[in-house]
Amino acid sequence: MPTSAPEWNGALLTAAGLGAGYGAIRVLEQVDITVHAGQVVALVGPNGAGKSTLLKALSGMIPKTAGRVTFAGQDITRLTTQACGRLGLVHVIEGHRVLPSLTVEENLLLAALDQPAAARRTRVDEAYEVFPEIGEKRALRAGTLSGGQQQMLVIAQGIVRHPKLLLLDEPSAGLAPVLIDRVLEVVSGFRTRGTAVFLVEQAVEKALRMADRVYALVHGRIVLDTDAQSARQPGVLERAYLGAAHAAS
Amino acid sequence: MVITILVAGIATGAIYAMIGISYNLMYATSKVVSFTPGQLGMIGAVFGAWFIGVLGFPLWIGFLAAMGVSIVFGYLTERVTVRPVLKSIEQHLYVLTTLAAAMMIQQVVAIWWGTDPRPFPHLFGLGTGLASEKYWLPVVACFVVFIALEWFYRKTLWGAAFIAVAEDVEAARALGIPDVRVRVLSYCLAAFVGALAGFWGGQLLLAFFALGATLTFYGFVPIALGGLGSNRGALIGGFFLGILQQTANYFVGGVFVGVVTFVVFITLLVLVPGGLYGTAIARRV
Amino acid sequence: MATGLEAIASTELPVVAGRRSRAVLGVAAAVLAAMLLPFTVNHYWMQIGTLAFVYWVLIAGLDLIVGYAGALAVGFVGLLTIGAYTASILCEKAGWPAFAALLAAGTAGALFGFLIGLPSLRLKSFYFAMTTLGFSTIVTQVALGWESLTGGGIGLPGPMFPAPFDSPVGFYYLAFGMALIATYLLRNIAFSNFGRGLVAVRDAEVAAEAVGVPITRLKLMTFTLSGILAGMAGALFAARQTYITPDAFTFDLSVLFFIAVLIGGRGRVVGPMIGTVILTLLPEIAAPLVMWSNFLYAALLLLVVLLVPGGIAEFLERLFGKAVKGGGLEAPVPERLNAVLGEHASPKALTLEGVALHFGGVRALDGVSLTVRPGTVHGLIGPNGSGKTTLLNAASGFYTANAGRIAFGEAALTARSSDERAALGIGRTFQTPRVVGNLSVLENAMLGAYRQFTVHFPAVALGSRRGVKEDAAVRQRAVDALVAVGLRRLAHLRADQLQHTEQRLLEIARCLVMRPSILLLDEPAAGLSHDEIEHLRALIEHIRSLGVAILLVEHHADLVFQVSDEVTVLDVGRVLAHGAPAEVRVNAEVINAYLGT
């Protein structure tokens, strides 16, 4: 579909000149992002840099003050989060926010709400295969699960929707190290399903190990855009983080 | 006379409880406490009386028509007085818009229907005295509503979607749940339940334009006591209020019933801690 | 000398062309028209005028509660009823003279106004509205039921004022005089620090606490004053009607009063006045059915809220007022701070010892000890979630510590509320600026001195000269503070028209007007450009040189290390490192904590 968006270079997701904020507070300035199908791209940066804000702007959870976003060739700048979801851009928000008074099963069925009833069952069972831990607890209220299990549940909710691109906000936050590895293992597995992943991660080292590319966001601006290999070189990230204080004026 | 108090108390309590449930339904998906449920109850009573009593429609047609009118007003409440205000930072504005809407509904009905209370037609013509249908119809309606809603929430996926939007609208949105549509539906449902209270309680309440104001206050007391958002609380609070009123009516009589009710209400409101003043206090600073 | 200061103030700030003189002319014209009314229109319309004045006496008081304090007192008619019956009963049954009964009505109004004010302190908007609704219903029912006293449904005659007020024309002028008094009281409070304080409580309660507004006391005094006016309006109403019955005091009437304030514009005087005139005239124009006029009035409220939330006042401003244009930010002039901060009381240190704070299961602060010495800058850094803001909140009284000791100088702070701590000289800014959007930048800055006004509420209401002088002195101090931070050219803009970074500077200016002994700054440099950070640094250094202690929470590592005398690093609620900036900077653990590796 022809759009007035920037030249479609075949990428799955492109953001150009993106700006966003909350009321009078401007958080993001001039952000450009590209994610190709099947890629795993990591977004790192110090706290308060605007990483969650960037994901929310991409998926339409907050309004954009500037810039355009294109997904699978379509201009999605003005679309609602639900509409983006139907196109295959799924956002798993931070904080393992399951729906606490509903059961695990209901949480997953809800994620498949726009599927026909028969397909829902299949999708939910697929999710249990990836995360047998929550399959065991399917009849329990999601609020009774541990933090780690809840995190698995929200990712499972993402899986159920068969996304083309999954926006993952801090999947490992607050998890014990062994669970972090489990979760990140699942995330790398997305690549084999053909799902691209754009993830915000605090566990920088681990994220870099499984990502293809890395963006670093500092004070609302992209200060690093490179492949994961280069980002792992000593001093590269530190320079990006601390150097930005002078660049951002 | 204890029986009289109980029968009359539970009957009026059932009406109040249903209005309370209407408040809950509007609140759950929008976090807005609206001034309109009482007026929607009045619409159920007045239009029920008009369609069946004046125009002579058959019972179920008249019932559906009256519910239809109320649902339209319920939809308008969401569309015109709640949705525009939700976007604003100033949260209290919904009190003003819904108050304005409630007042407008009341005045329009007063102009069209007149200001005298008019009788509500007998529906089935069953029972006399304390076993008259005017006492047990509202009670039956109340329990049907309560049970139906519980079934809806627990057993259907759309009910789960309602709960999702009520619990965490951002998470629901991210999951792809159409939160706006859910909210509109919940307002229509709230209007339906409110009108049910007025319709099935019509023989007890009369078709009276000022009914709206009465129901607004007395329908709110159950949820103020029972906890906003809890239908069970609305039921208990409603019956408690109904019985309290009838008891006061018997002992103190007529005019001072209101005083007793209000004093009990305000005392409990100030004493009951925590949950009554809104849900968990968000981090202020 | 006061005039000299005013002269400096008025020449320094950008001039707001013509608005003042136009407003004064308008008011004078209205007053003149009102005085001449009985001679220009027939008897009927004069009676309508009398009614408008009587309503205005009540609505002026309601304006303070609803418009300024923001309490949704939907059922205020109960006070009108109480005033009316008090006066009528005293005159009819106890033979009191009318003016004495008028005062008694005011006293009864004061008492019940105070009583209604109590639930407003604890109940949120809708709940409070319902409470007032219930209250007014009860009052009417008591009037109906207590026959021996009130005459029940039959009612009783209203008070009769002595000559020359016993004729309709005479009564018109009595009502007019009362309306003028009500306006005078309203205006005095509205334009004073109490008025600003009320708007702050209404819109930005956190900011109000941070400058030390004693919210309970202020609200109760306001409710009491409104009660007095409503009670007296009731007595006048009863006199005008010559005979009162309970059904004259309907809930609908109460809602109409409430609407008058809101369509007039919250936090305004003239708007609600116009709203009152519309209220009184509408039934005449929308005759024959009073219900149509009620319908239209409610529709008007809906339109106002949806389209012009600022009401008639905003509408008039758009039509007649020239847009207030601000300039941009200027370079700060730190030297002006000398005038602002003035003489210092003995400098005090802020000490935290073993402070712990949990939220549910989370230990936000886990035994933190820290001292901010007077005349020094103490930097506080650490990753997000490390507890920096929590520490500030604990120190300033917005959170209560579960364990440990916090002291300011010799005084233990543990039992003190946030507004008391502000009064002790602890000033703070917030991560997200808390400014009062509906007040001007200058008025926001003046809020800082709230606790330093000495003239009491009743004296201010009556127009105390000393109050006016205090206001002028604080105004000058605020101007100095704005010049010092560079906001001079924006002084007359509404605070919600400011950019985010400008709002941050406004918060700092407000703190400075407070003449604090210690300043707690929460990430003041967030979002600032390189130059702006330099300006901030100069300001902080100058503030320090004047003997004020500063606790600086920041993410901009450069700024912290440059300006601090000592630095504390927090991580997961504990002190990770502490010492001179140079030492802390190279501490390996600190670097790890920041980069999250």
Key terms:
B: mainly alpha, globular, C: 597 residues, 12 strands, disordered N terminus
Q: What is the CA-based Rg of chain C, rounded?
A: 28 Å
Largest interface: B-C, 44 and 46 residues
| Class of secondary structure makeup of chain C | alpha/beta
Q: What is the strand arrangement across the widest sheet of chain C? A: 8-9-10-5-11-12
C-alpha termini separation of chain C: 63 Å
Report the span from N to C terminus of chain B.
56 Å
Beta-strand percent range of chain B: under 5%
Number of strands of chain B: 0
By secondary-structure content and strand pairing, the structural class of chain B works out as mainly alpha
Count of DSSP helices of chain C? 26
Shape of chain C: elongated
Could you estimate the helical fraction of the residues of chain B in percent?
Answer: over 70%
Instruction: Provide the gyration radius of chain B in Å.
Output: 19 Å
Largest sheet of chain B: none
- Total strands of chain C: 12
In round numbers, the mean pLDDT of chain B is: 88
Strand content of chain C: 5-15%
Describe this structure in words.
The complex is a heterotrimer of chains A (249), B (285) and C (597). Helix content of chain A is 39%, strand content 25%. Chain A is of the alpha/beta class. In chain A, the strands form two sheets. Chain A has a six-stranded mixed β-sheet with strand order 6-7-8-3-9-10, sandwiched between helices. In chain A, strands 2-1-4-5 form a four-stranded antiparallel β-sheet, with helices on one face. In chain A, α7 (177-193) links the parallel β7 and β8 (196-200). In chain A, α3 runs parallel beside α6. With 285 residues, chain B is mostly helical. In chain B, 75% of the residues lie in helices and 0% in strands. Chain B contains twelve helices and no strands. Residues 273-283 of chain B have low confidence and may be disordered. Chain C is 60% helix and 11% strand. Chain C has a six-stranded mixed β-sheet, with helices on both faces. In chain C, a hairpin with a 2-residue loop joins β11 and β12. The radius of gyration of chain C is 28 Å and the shape is elongated. The termini of chain C are far apart.
